[in-house]
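Retry 2 of 3 after timeout on previous attempt. Resubmitting structure tokens to design endpoint.
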């Protein structure tokens, strides 16, 4: 084993300990700072009721959730675990983009906390790779896996939340259309969706309702909801509602038509998913089996891959194999994923 690797590990652990101590000091220094300033302005008393239309902490840092916009209660902000990183990312576009990504996935994490999870994954997986194999390239590969896992989990949760939202959308449109037929206004119909529908669709409409109560035009609030969700079905609905609010028309009939279209698309997607399930499973097995086999053989017989790793031709063979595996996985992905 290279003597440089233990030095790097010890240095990383030392820097991590120093950073953890600095974060604790910063948290202790900043704790109660906002409350003290509010007490100084308001004579030591702070309101306990949530103002109407307050925005959500799922999207920003330290505020209450969008779902709690429907009720009033005590506001308790969750303490910031990484104030230094929060201060850094909040000053640039990285923090704003990560905040949107966290909200889109429905994850109760601040951007700084997600960055901390990624850094921790790199360190932990790198140390595991070094302990299990003692090889520098395997350590680097495991560290890269530790970085990729949180990102993949984030994308997975985003896709799951978007799929759940799309599945709830037809029932939401039916509820809105029925409310409009009984004489409700569009805002009253939105209130009914917030109170009757489960998350995540109730959370998103609560967010849009809160923005409208703060003075944002309803068309703009709905368009921002499309930007957060990234759903083609929702984009179609918002476009129809925006046109109807501007030029008039029978919105209930339009929503019923869109609801039927979305239900049919969901049915077709389900049929396609059932027909392509075998291909998806085959692609996953074919892609993951060589990697898992290489890892097992390297643990059981550490010198098994020495001829490939020590010879220039062997390195080219390994590189070509990885490229072909990625290319095959991409081809299978394109074959089994159809845009409906």
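Retry 2 succeeded. Sequence:
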């Amino acid at each position: 084993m290279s003597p440089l690797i233990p030095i790097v590990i010890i240095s990383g652990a030392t820097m991590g300990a120093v950073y953890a101590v600095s974060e604790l000091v910063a948290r202790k220094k900043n704790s109660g700072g906002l409350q003290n300033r509010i007490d100084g302005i308001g004579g030591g008393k702070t309101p306990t009721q949530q103002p109407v239309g307050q925005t959500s902490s799922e999207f920003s840092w330290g505020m209450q959730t969008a779902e709690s916009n429907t009720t009033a209660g005590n506001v308790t902000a969750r303490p910031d675990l990484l104030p230094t990183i929060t201060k850094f990312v909040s000053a640039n576009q990285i923090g704003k983009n990560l905040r949107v990504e966290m909200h889109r996935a429905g994850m109760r994490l601040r951007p700084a906390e997600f960055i901390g999870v990624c850094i921790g994954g790199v360190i932990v997986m790198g140390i595991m790779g070094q302990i299990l194999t003692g090889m520098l390239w395997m350590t680097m590969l495991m560290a890269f896996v530790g970085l990729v896992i949180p990102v993949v989990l984030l994308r997975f949760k985003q896709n799951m939340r978007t799929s759940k939202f799309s599945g709830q959308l037809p029932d939401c449109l039916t509820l809105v259309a029925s409310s409009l037929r009984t004489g409700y206004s569009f805002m009253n119909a939105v209130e009914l969706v917030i109170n009757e529908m489960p998350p995540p669709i109730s959370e998103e409409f609560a967010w849009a309702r809160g923005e409208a109560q703060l003075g944002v035009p309803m068309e703009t609030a709905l368009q921002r909801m499309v930007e957060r969700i990234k759903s083609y079905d929702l984009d179609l609905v918002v476009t129809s509602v925006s046109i109807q609010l501007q030029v008039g028309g029978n919105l209930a009939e339009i929503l019923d038509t869109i609801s039927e279209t979305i239900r049919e698309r969901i049915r077709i997607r389900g049929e396609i998913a059932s027909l392509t399930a075998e291909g998806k499973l085959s692609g996953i097995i074919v892609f993951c089996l060589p990697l898992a086999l290489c890892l097992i053989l390297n643990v059981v017989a550490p010198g098994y891959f020495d001829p490939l790793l020590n010879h220039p031709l062997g390195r080219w063979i390994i590189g070509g194999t990885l490229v072909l595996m990625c290319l095959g996985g991409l081809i299978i992905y394109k074959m089994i994923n159809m845009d409906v």
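Attempt log closed. The chain has three domains: 1-32+79-160, 161-267, 276-336.
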